[in-house]
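Narrative summary of target 7.
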Amino acid sequence: MAGDSLQHERIADLLGHQPNGNHSDRSHEESRATSPGVGGYRLGGGYGDNDVDVSRLGRTRPRVFPYARYLPYETESISQREQDVDEMIKHLYIAVASGDFVPGAVHWTKEIRGWMSLKFDLTKKQRISLVKLYYELCLAPGLEQAVAERFASMFMVLTKRKHYLRPGKDLILDWRPLFKELKVFVLPVDFSTPNTYSSKRNVRTLTKICTFAQLFFDPKEIPVMLEEFLPYFSLSYSEHAFVVLALMNLMLPTSPPPEGEEKLLPQSFFPTYFHLWSTINRSMMIDMRFLDIFSRQARDCLGAGHIPFGPCGLFTEQQSSIIFTAVLRLLEIPVGQATTPYSATVDVGAGSSLFLERDPRKHPVSHSIARWIVMSISPKCLESENEKSTLHQLEALIQGIETFFHPSNSGAWTRTLAQLVYYLADFFVMRWNREQSGEYEIPEDRKLNEAVKHRFVSCLRDVVFMGIYAKSGTAMNYSLSTLQSLAYLEPNLILPGALQRIYPAMQGLVEVHRTISSIRALQMLCNIIAKTKGFRCHLTTLLGLALPGIDANDLDKTMHTLAFIQAVCYNIPLHDLSKEPSRVKSDLNSDYEVVDPDSSLAAGSGTALAVEWITGQVGRFDQEGPGIEIDYMNELSEEDEEAILKSSTAGFAEFIISFLGRVFTLLQNLPDAARVKSGSPEENVVNTLPAAFTPMLASLSPELYDLALEHIAKFIAGHVVHQARDAMAFICNALVKISPKKALSRLLPELISSIRNEIDENGAGSTRTTGSEILPRDRALVWYVSILSMCVVHVGRDVIDFKDELFELAGFMQDTCKGIPLVHVSNFVHHLLLNLTVTYTMDYCLYEKGELERGLTPDSWGKAGDPTNLEIQWHVPQQDELSFAIRIFEAQGGRALNALSELISETAPIARDGVGKDWSDEVSRHLVLLRLVISGMSRLFRSDDGTVTPYTFDCAESHGQVVGIDESNDGTNDSAVDLGEPDDDKVKRSFQYPTGYPLEIGSPQYDAVHKLRKSAGETLHKIHEFLVKNQEDDVPCFNALYTAYKSWFVDIGIERSAHVLDRLTRLLSADTHPFKFSGTRKQYPRPLLVRRANLYHFQRLRFNEDPRAASELDKTLLLDLAHSSTSLYTDIRRTSQSAAEQAMKSIVGAKPLVIPVLLDALDDALKKSEHPRIKGAVYSLLFGSLAKPIGRNWKFAPTMIRLFIRVTEADRPSIQKLVVNSTFTIQDMTKALDRMVIIDEATLNAVWPDEVEAGINAGKQSRTVARTIEDAQAFVPAKKTRIKKRRVIIEQRKAELAAELIESVKSSHWKKASRTAVMAIGLDYRFETIASDSMLDVVVNGVIDPHPALRTLYASSLNAIFGLTQMRALTGHSYEKYLLDIHEDPDEVTVPTEPADPTWTARYLESFAKPEADAYIDADYPGWLVWKKTIRAFRPGPTGIQYDEVEDHVRRKMGSFIDRHWLSTYFGYMKQEPRDRHNDRFRMGSSMIVSYALDLMSDGFTAATFEDVIDLTRAVYGDGSDKHQHRAMAEIMGAMLTSSEDFDTELRTKVWEFAFPTLRRIFTDGLTPENISYWSTFVALVIGGKDPRRQWPLVDWLASYRLDMDTNAAFKESSKITLLQLVISSAGWHFQLDKPILKDFLGHLDHPYKGVREVMGTMLATIFRTRYHESYKDVATLLEAQRSASDIGVRPYQPSDEYTATINDVVSRLEKWRLERPAGTQTPTPYTQASKTVLLWLDTSLSTYDCTVLVPFFPGALMEQLLHMMDIKEDPELQSLAYHVFRHLPNIPHRPGEDADFVASLVKIGMNATSWHQRLRVLINIQVIYFRNLFLMPKKQAEDLFHCVREMLHDTQLEVRLGAAATLSGMVRCAPLAYRNKQISDLKKHFTNLLVKNPLPKRLRKAAAITSKEGAQEQNKLVLTRHAAVLGLGALVQAFPYTSPPPDWLPEVLATLAGRAASDPGTVGKSVKQVLSDFKKTRQDTWHVDVKAFKPEQLEDLEGVLWKSYFA
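Modeled conformation, tokenized:
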């Protein structure tokens, strides 16, 4: 075969390069006919230039792997594939054009996806038109959600990879349709009514579509998008701001704008982005959003040469520092005692913007951070003068948080950090690879170079080495992958350190978990080690060291060790290179010694050289410690390195022997695997063994292979290890696959004789066994049979040598065995058949044949396969194999069929006496045999054979048509057709692709095979009938029978029942995982590439097996399954249900066949009330693939719904559970069908394929569904009317069913009624009719039904009916307008704005302070950030809404039921106590119903009058003593006030005349802590989101509230303030009555009551917060203002003069009160009370987004006041509050340059404050502000802070000194490296000098008494100074608790401490000992390394202090 194909390729080349330049497609047609799959892929490794016009291709780069070329059979031509896909697209066109979405369009979508999954490429034109069509479809108004989701996912598949379509060049999508859909969810304010009818879309899908479509939006649209989004931005109601930013993140395109458009450069928008970012402080969500935007911008504009790019990428230094500051916040690293930098209260306001979040699991924030950093790095970073470039900042970031990577220091941050480093490395590798391969087109000066790469890897190296030993599994996984990426980039930087850590671990010198980490690290690094000079010499030693890891006591370690060995064997050949290649002895029986006698010992004596070198190297690792640098590139010459390498390979033989020894020991000690597939470690090991053995055996040299074969063969023969049976069988399979001839001839004879021996001598398998236990006597037999059956599967044609022995053996075993061993025998037959008939690869070798023949050299190590150049060995079944297979099939299959026929005949050889189980055993074992034989032969069955399916196609001629759509049944038997699914069973596909079918069609063998399959099917049916009649409780037989049914149905062409494809895919992806690096393609070892080709063959097989038409036999068998799906026995039901599911999937038209049978069975079971059968039927009908067809097919649906309602009455918990779970399925059936879908014609027409090739192959033009688009359009009208007609009939049916159900509701039990009502409502609720009269009757009266569950149900229906009525009226009574969201609200008016007038905003706001208005402006965003030309507003007064007859009729009908009785009943229920606590709140639902009733009343449709309502309302409230009365009252009042807005003036006045006095009374006297929540909701409902002028009397009255200082009813006061605060926060910046309130509150800060003070505090914060707005003239002005301000925009929240005056005034009053307060007063004073009010106000302000308004006030006044408050010991509440606020301060974001004053005042307090408490407290903030502003703080401030803390070590107070030491060590730790080293050397010098210069006088050591006073002071001062020095040095030591080995300066510091101060008395000596012992404690793990950093005399000094003898 190989020779042939070479010939062909040569011919193809000649044909392809014809000199006369005739390169039309024709020449290729001919060449393809002769050569297998040489297509356009051949020339030049990619698509040839003269071959296929590149512009047609749908890819910007060619495929790496030529899939079709490697298949061992002819494949289809490229033009053939394209013709097929054109055909599919035509069908799709017709389906969409005629409105046939399900099944039509969905089916063809599936087809096109399947076609693409075969790695076929759409042309660019096809792809573009399809993308546009699916974009249109997934957003098409009116399409049902589930279908739209299918189209959306297809849209994502088509746009997923960036190399198909280039954004902006090939495809531009319009963002508006998507925005319109999203708006419904997140900006409902733009619509007049809530969309109650159905939420039309799933918002998750929309956001996903955004992610994919965003790339293709046009960057020129950015200004337009901002014009659209930004006017919605408002922080007065913060949800809008969140939504706008989320929309910007999802929608704004980040691809580079076209050249020459200055206005569109990113920097013209960045200042505005930064400005918006700074308006929402302290929000984690916003930080994440902006990082996402910026990181995408950085990625997309990296390649655009015309966009300026500097050391910080696209960003300026200031912007970059701000982003890094945000990164530091996002990592949530704990600093000192600081709380998180975020405030939860801000993100609570995110509201509906949560819908727009990206999935945080898929887009973790660390992903954005890493993307932003890596995409901003370029060589320009290295040129940056001031070290502020992205790369420098990254180094500073990593150094600052280094200690948080250490395993001992783990916490919430561990995972994020590990993830961050992982993504950093991953993005860097990707960018590096793609730049190197030229895939990224990037300007030269931005390309990463060696220097940048070196810096980057050095920066991450240390933290990754810490991370691989992490305690958390996920963090460890991330770190290991990172390690691999870094080593890939810079092997010489990573490998020395890695080996230095790995050797001790592998030698068992450290803890176990470090050993496991090390083995895993080796597995990840193996690929790189094998390629890298010098390091690869270590590999063989490491292999040897890994062996002890195979250990039955530690299965986890065993797994990783095996994985490591597997990785090594994929990378290096286990060939002994130290010998000269000798002649290979090929005959089988020559004995090999380990070293061939005739080979000269070339390179020294075996492994001696290598051993010596490695020993030296390990010593060197030990010596130099973790920081080791090794450069083998220059150290070793090429020759030496090769000599060492060769010598290291001499030990492989020993390795193999000991490896096999360890594996055998492991297998003998494995515990019994209790169950299969339990996921236990034992099972994992058994699964890992074959994965490790296959590559290992494949990489052995022939002599070593013989050695392994001998060992394994001996083990098999000498042992029977029952629990390791499968593992051993797998190992043998691997062994035989590698060299079938050799292995089979060694193993088979022994196995066969052992089997015969066991059976003949030991009588194994002679008795029937029960259960699944295998008898000890049979174990040896099962062991041999299992091994034998794995030795003959997938091993190729060499089995033929033993064909007679195997054939006889099978027969012999079938005759003599019984019981369980027989299953293994049948399995053996199955395997043998698979081996003979299936096409598969037979190639596991690491190298091509040619290389092996030339002999391997050291260069062969670590070589990846070349995907474009493989010679694959395939197993293609030959004639002799097929004959043998058919012989077995006929013998074994025939045997089973005969036996079964006998067993069910009258004269059965075994009696069915019902006592023994012999008969059923016999039946089930023959069924098992039959099943396995069928699936073994599956490859030889063809689904289009006459015995399999009635429709056969003449394959030769019709390849790839779908025979025209059958139009015969127009108008013949109308009703029958139209109810079914249209064309379901006619959508028959016959796109088949060649898969190398082995038999000749129509040959005798072919017929024999298919006949036997048919008779098998018939026998199965007979057995079914027999069992049902005679043995209906025989579960084992039934199970075997239905499993056989399953195989019979699905195993055609490919063995689907074994899930071959899934298995191959999973195993391959697991094995390729370690070789994947971002940005590389298929750089796998050769065996994995070969497996990819094999998998591709199986994908083609699977593709061809699509559902087939049913033959008569199929139908019979399907009905058998349906019958048993409702069996009485659970197990039988389950098996047959699963078989039936599978069968229905593989047969077209099976479902309509089965459904009626199941429905009848259910009906019958209900009559007889047989619960098990009810369960079976319900389950089969509603929980599988039948539910959807039933819902679509209205022949069945009504029956189903009626039956379901009967099922709900059954009283079995298990049935009720089924009912509950399937309710939604049934409700889905009642929904209206889509009656209109709106699609753009042009987009649809663009899909139609061009007919180009019509001329070329006119001769063999295949039949097609339609030649031209006109032909196709001719189909459409007929199809459309058919679909329409069907819809009309179905809707009629639905209406009839609804009427019937409604009648039954009236008389049934509540539980049944509630289920029935749900369906009835679903069936009856339609846009056209709204609801039928009988329905309205049930619903309106149902609202006052005595049963609470029914009440809630009907209430929600009533709300929906009202909602729909209103909706219809607003959309002009037209369904189309409803779909398009076109609202025509008569009350809406458009108010023009005058933003050009500077006084406009002020005038606009003033209008809100007056009650009268021309138009109500409900939304609060217009003008907050920018003005638009107009505002949407509503005209006051009665509503102008017009109802048409339908709506009017419904309203009148409903009104007729509402009389006084109805109202009083309903009100009565409203004030009942709710049943669960959860419902005890203001219920919107009840309020809505009352307001609807009032609405009908105002139109005079109701019997009740408004006077009745007033009476009844008063009755509800009663005396107001009970909270439930209040709840009902609040609901009714809410309804009155909201609905009265639309009434005419007279009625409206009546409402207010009743409501206002009532409310005033309640608010003044009736509020209690119990009922305040209802009234709060009431206020929010009436005022929230509306114009405050709508409820003016209420607003005005609440705003006129003033504090009453004399009252003692604190609650009344605070509750009124609460309500007022609600008004203010609801109305936001529209609330204009704030001045007097502020004045009143600020005047009474010292209110005596705590409750009132708390509300006052929050109230002040709220008022100040809502005063802020920006109101730019328009978006352009906004952008310009920000650009001109600075590169980070304008500072928001600049305090106004008034505000400044207010704050200063408050501070001075506090100061005055403080001085008046006598010290030590226990009772409250004005000072303490006012302070608490102020603190609450500050606390509220600081935890919202406008906290930066207070920044200018921190230094000085505010901070000093806070410190004073903390000193008031008498009032602990005040102290803790003040402390809490104080800790907020440094977490508030400071803009660059704003921290100077703050730092100065911190330093001032630290140095000069008189109270030591204050000095101590300031330290907390110093550390936090330093850390948070690491990237923003100028050098000078940092110096000041360090100096201040250093001086505070001399503080007289011990606590302050200790605090300062802790702070100092924290600051040193997080300082950037260069700065840190400078600080360390300064501090070390400073403190050492202090110690040396201030020695303790001699006599003091004896602690002699001191007499004089000065002496004592001197003495104290000395001790202080020495303590400061000791603490300072200690702080330096403690700053690096984990750095191993310790930094160079550290040993000296410790020695100084130990030598100079350890013997001091008191605290000083104690501190020294503390430091030393801590040092030792944190280094237990690494002491063996760290101890080397000390000189011997230093160690002695230390030991003198630390390890004092106990007795000394």
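The two ends are 88 Å apart (CA to CA).
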